[in-house]
Design brief:
By secondary structure, this protein is of the alpha+beta class. The protein has one domain: Signal recognition particle alu RNA binding heterodimer, srp9/1 (2-Layer Sandwich), CATH 3.30.720.10. The chain is 47% helix and 19% strand. A 4-stranded mixed sheet has the order 1-4-3-2, with helices on one face. α1 packs parallel to α3. The protein is elongated, with a radius of gyration of 25 Å.
């Protein structure tokens, strides 16, 4: 697993999505982390210091795993970029056209009436 800066992470995530368009999937996991071991966190707690938590983001396509850490200052910029990438690469989830329920119900009634008269 490679810990990248924000921009290289987003670039690599984009290339992962592009590689998996025909076949495969990309898994993205977000979790809260202080990036410190449990022993270090316990020391900070006993000393009375506050622990700065960050968001650890991991992405994998099964072959390659990348990760980054986002702080509170950068989360809005990251969120906007991440949303843009997701919108651009989720083409399979396009919205279907909705059929008007009244028109379809009326058409069914007409078919029943025509069948009964024939």
């Amino acid at each position: 697993m490679v810990l990248l800066q924000l921009d290289p992470f987003l670039n690599e995530l984009t290339s992962m999505f592009e590689r998996s368009t025909e076949k495969g999937s990309v898994w993205v996991t977000l979790k809260r982390s202080s990036l410190k071991s449990k022993v270090q966190r316990n020391k900070l707690k006993t000393d009375g210091e506050t622990i700065e938590y960050r968001c650890l983001i991991r992405a994998t396509d099964g072959k390659k795993t990348i990760s980054t850490s986002v702080g509170a200052k950068d989360h809005q910029r990251f969120q906007a970029s991440y949303a843009t990438i997701l919108k651009a690469h989720m083409t399979a989830l396009k919205k279907r056209e909705r059929k008007d329920k009244k028109k379809t119900a009326g058409a069914k009634k007409k078919r029943k009436v025509q069948r009964n008269t024939v």
